[in-house]
Amino acid sequence: MSLRCLYLMICWSTLYNIDALLQLSVNPPTVEVGLTTTITINCSLDVLSEPDMSSLESIKLSRSNDTTPPVYTTLSTIDTFSNTATNSSDSAANAYGKIVTSGVSYLSLVWNKPIEFLGGIFKCEVSSLDLSGRPRNENMTSRVNVVSAGVNELLVRVQSLSLVIENMSTVIDSYTNRLLQSKKSLFLESSPFEGSRYYLSRPFPSLVSYIAQATCEIYGGTLAQVDSQEELSFIQVFLQEFFNSFWLVLIGGTDEGHEDHWVYPESNRNVSFFAWGSYQPSGGEKENCISLDTLAYWNMSDSPCSFNDYSARPRFLCEIPES
């Protein structure tokens, strides 16, 4: 075998391996105007599997119209110096990428909900150095077609979406009914007051303030935030209907971590109204939550934020806006 033939075989083998390892994917390959929601173009190269490459220098994605010869405009690049994918000023895509010394290096462009998208020929170009330090350049191209969706296809899509929405509505209605049933099982409900209702929990073996708050949030509310004497008076009348079954009700407000500075932790809003009972607050750093206490004639007292004694029969009060 001649040296020239051997040289050509080695070159052909090297190019074949590079082509096999360099990948350019386009998803979807055909863009339907007004219907395609995401377009992804990804160029990748498995550096570890390329034995004849000493280093990968850069990756570039570009696009050309259907011209002869093609004239490419750069869309995005990444190189080893910055290792950050950048896109051109006129590209509406998000660029992602990385270059690694071993493994898969890549450069991706993603268009989300594109208003318009130009098809054409997309090209991935890879610049690298071989084992002798000589520059090498490889590229791969892929075509993206842009088509207008026909009326019949649009009707099919609309009908399909209508079925999805109908199924979702059924599921939502089912969960809403379950939520309402669980609320009736967990709470006693007040009449409305200034656009909200108050929900008094049934007794629990133990009670923790943040769990009570989370429970209120499940139903779209918070632990009751009492902002006026009128609101407190309304709540007191509501609680007195059931006063013989408990003596303490946890509401919103805490000074935990900032003694005597009372806030609503879910919003960090300062508590603006207080109606402390006699000798209240009195618990210092051991009692960091606000409760309405029957011993204080349903006025405010500071209390622990957790109760493990069922004999105390603690409950909590949610405030939920009317829907």
From TrEMBL:
The entry's keywords: Signal
C-type lectin domain ranges (all copies): 193-299
Signal sequence range: 1-20
Protein name, UniProt field: C-type lectin domain-containing protein
Species assigned in the record: Biomphalaria glabrata
Gene name of the encoded protein: 106070922
